[in-house]
Automatic annotation (TrEMBL):
Alphabetical UniProt keywords: Lyase, Metal-binding, Signal, Zinc
Enzyme Commission number(s) of this protein: 4.2.1.1
InterPro entries assigned: Alpha_CA_prokaryot-like, CA_dom, CA_dom_sf, Carbonic_anhydrase_a-class, Carbonic_anhydrase_a-class_CS
Gene behind the chain: cah
Named cofactor requirement(s): Zn(2+)
Protein name: Carbonic anhydrase
Listed transmembrane segments: none
């Protein structure tokens, strides 16, 4: 039984990590194809995800869902996250829901003794998580998987300010059409530089914020935000022509450590 559970976790993780999307349409014109499955507007919006497919049931039935409004419940001495981001990016894909940069194998973060390998990072506007009731114009999710398939997300908030040079590199490359992928060469240094130098963070359990909304995802959200210009946020928003944030979910009594 245990084996079946962990295998299916790996399968889900593999699907999610591959494209950030679990389904593909045969006719993918105009970049709207994925909305036939799930999206952010109208009958495909987050409030309907749970009814769309049996596999998406957690989106409506889960009790440990993301995103949340982060209000810390416990002050403890959280161990520093140990980043070893030492590989370059591979490519950047517009999957119809977001812009996702895939990373070559070998970059890891160690969280409480377990290594999680960085698979990809992607963006949401406005932010999905809030911190003490505050939303940010953009949030990046660095998605990692351990050998057993369990997932850890490291999130970076962006605050409106000066133009962000690494974001500029990504924005200048990413395909404007859904389901297109191009190569992009961000160095390991570029990727490290996307993280704030002050690495204090909030830690809590949650889920994927997109279908199938799988739970048991370890969330780590930096307290310190990074800058992004108003024009850069607009450029991302205009590509999709709508927000791509799932609404805040119930905390249901979970601990939020800092
Ligand atoms: Zn995300």
């Amino acid at each position: 039984m245990k084996k079946i559970i962990s295998l299916s976790l790996v399968a889900i993780a593999a699907m999610v990590l591959a494209t950030g999307c679990t389904s593909h349409s045969e006719n993918s014109e105009h970049g709207k194809s994925h909305e036939a499955h799930w999206g952010y507007e109208g009958k495909y919006s987050p409030s309907h995800w749970g009814e769309m497919k049996e596999e998406f049931a957690m989106c409506s039935q889960g009790k440990v869902q993301s995103p949340i409004n982060i209000i810390p419940t416990e002050d403890i001495d959280l161990k520093a996250l140990d980043f070893k981001y030492n590989t370059n990016s591979m490519d950047v894909v517009n999957n119809g829901h977001t812009v996702q940069v895939n990373i070559l194998a070998g970059s890891t973060v160690n969280i409480a003794g377990t290594d999680y390998e960085l698979k990809q990072f992607h963006f949401h506007t406005p932010s999905e998580n809030n911190i003490n009731g505050k939303a940010y114009p953009l949030e990046a999710h660095f998605v990692h998987a351990a050998k057993d398939g369990s997932l850890a997300v490291v999130a970076v908030m962006y605050e409106e300010g000066k133009e962000n040079p690494i974001i500029e590199k990504i924005w200048s490359k990413f395909p404007l059409k859904a389901n297109e992928k191009v190569s992009i060469s961000l160095s390991a240094n570029d990727i490290q530089a996307m993280l704030p130098s002050n690495k204090d963070y909030y830690k809590f359990m949650g889920s994927l914020t997109t279908p199938p909304c799988s739970e048991n995802v370890k969330w780590n959200v930096f307290k310190t935000s990074m800058p992004i210009s108003k024009e850069q946020v607009k450029q991302f928003f205009d590509t999709f022509e709508h927000a791509n944030n799932r609404p805040i979910q119930n905390i249901n009594g979970r601990s939020i450590l800092q």
